[in-house]
Design brief:
With 176 residues, the chain is an all-alpha fold. It has one domain: AhpD-like, CATH 1.20.1290.10. Helix 3 crosses helix 5 and helix 3 runs parallel beside helix 8.
């Protein structure tokens, strides 16, 4: 399993996704760890088992054990946070001022540099559509010297990996 094998699973109408996967796999604005972790968190957030297996086969070996665990943790914690904070943002009222009362210890000690964890959290937040989380993570990234081009690169990876997962989900549903 690899990125090339994943690309070969995509139907012809998804040629742009095939091309974008190839281009983004060598995105120069991100470090290897940032790029690999962004692919991993995006696959996990996309929830398609085939995409997860192929992305992990391609990018998992490019991450240390600690970085792979941190990427998994970013996908996990943002899966919770994106739902909660999207709710508080959209419903308004008193919810935004109430304590969340949700454990988020991994955010303080993610096991990798804060910038990388924030970048991965941003990618998952983009997939999950949490505007409040995207704004928060982008602000922290910019404050830590990450460029807008790097932020955009992470979101481009998230968008393409999510589109691949949706395409394969759709093809599987059509075949059933």
């Amino acid at each position: 399993m690899s990125l090339e094998a994943l690309r070969n699973l995509l139907p012809e109408y998804a040629k742009d996704q095939k091309l974008n996967l190839g281009t983004l796999s060598t995105e120069p604005s991100l470090s290897e760890q940032q790029r690999a972790g962004t692919f991993v968190v995006s696959a996990l957030a996309g929830r398609n088992p085939t995409v997860i297996k192929h992305i992990l086969a391609e990018f998992g070996p490019k991450l240390s054990a600690e970085a792979l665990t941190a990427a998994k943790a970013a996908a996990s914690i943002m899966g919770m946070n994106n739902i909660y904070y999207r709710f508080t943002h959209l419903v308004h009222g008193d919810y935004a001022t109430m304590p969340a009362k949700l454990r988020m210890n991994i955010m303080a000690k993610p096991g990798v540099e804060k910038v990388d964890f924030e970048l991965w959290s941003l990618a998952v937040s983009a997939i999950n559509g949490c505007g409040m989380c995207m704004e928060s993570h982008e602000k922290v990234l910019l404050q830590h010297g990450v460029t807008k081009e790097q932020v955009q690169a992470a979101v481009r990876i998230a968008a393409v990996v999510h589109a691949v997962a949706a395409t394969l989900d759709g093809e599987e549903a059509l075949a059933a």
